[in-house]
Write a sequence for this structure.
């Protein structure tokens, strides 16, 4: 009887410990935050305004429990559609403590359309994920994996990263994590590159932290994007530099609403 009680207690303690590792205290945003961006593409060595993007975070319910729901939508303009169609819609749910619950990305890029989904669960002492991909041919591919560590999709890691405390970081500081999509799990990392002043498309200038995002591809690290986030409690993305299959792109902040804390990084 004592052995059963001990085993039950150990399993519960392990589950709680693992769950705690997958959570993170949110200090950066509130429900109702709405951010908009202008997109620019480098087309034949010329930067052209080519679309918009918006990020919206609200309180919601997921499987009967309180959650955050975040969505990112990108839309290319008709001008760029003649060369390359870009229609991405990303969605994620996390717990109020930022543990990932669900992720979806629907991507129309050129003539290709794919859907990625990830379903997370944390019962039994280890994280479990169900991955789902619909490829361009309309075929459904499913995977189910039990893991020994927490994993994050690109939306949930971004929400989590906004609450990192960089006060003691030095240039070159690395935050490593496994990144998941509907088909694979890969090593990824954020590298702190220092501070820069960035002008947004709202005409204002902000003191920002620069974070370089890398993914491991065939054993080599590849730079995917650089993020410039406000050097204050909000860590709002002001500019994003992205490496795409067809070239490069940038996104500049146009407006922000529903911000949690006072903006202290604006440079007058």
């Amino acid at each position: 009887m004592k052995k059963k009680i001990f085993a039950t207690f150990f399993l519960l303690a392990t589950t709680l410990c693992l769950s705690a590792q997958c959570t993170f205290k949110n200090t950066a945003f509130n429900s109702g935050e709405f951010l908009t961006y202008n997109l620019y593409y480098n087309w034949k060595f010329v930067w052209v305004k080519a679309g918009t993007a918006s990020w919206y975070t609200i309180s919601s319910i997921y499987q009967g429990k309180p959650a955050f729901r975040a969505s990112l939508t990108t839309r290319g303009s008709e001008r760029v559609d003649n060369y390359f169609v870009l229609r991405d819609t990303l969605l994620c749910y996390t717990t109020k403590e930022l543990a990932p619950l669900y992720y979806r990305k629907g991507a129309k890029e050129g003539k290709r359309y794919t859907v990625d989904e990830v379903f997370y669960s944390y019962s039994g002492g280890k994280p479990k994920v169900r991955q789902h991909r619909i490829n361009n041919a309309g075929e459904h591919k499913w995977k189910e994996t039990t893991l020994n560590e927490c994993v994050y999709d690109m939306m949930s890691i971004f929400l989590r990263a906004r609450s990192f405390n960089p006060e003691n970081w030095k240039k070159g500081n690395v935050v490593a994590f496994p990144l998941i999509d509907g088909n694979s799990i890969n090593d990824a990392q954020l590298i702190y590159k220092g501070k820069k002043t960035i002008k947004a498309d709202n005409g204002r200038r902000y003191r920002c932290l620069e974070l370089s995002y890398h993914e491991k591809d065939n054993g080599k690290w590849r730079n995917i994007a650089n993020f410039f986030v406000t050097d204050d409690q909000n860590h709002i993305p002001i500019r994003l530099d992205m490496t795409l299959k067809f070239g490069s792109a940038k996104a500049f902040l146009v407006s922000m609403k529903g911000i949690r804390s006072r903006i202290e990084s604006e440079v007058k």
In short: The chain has three helices and 15 strands. The radius of gyration is 20 Å. Residues 2-22 form the longest helix (21 residues).
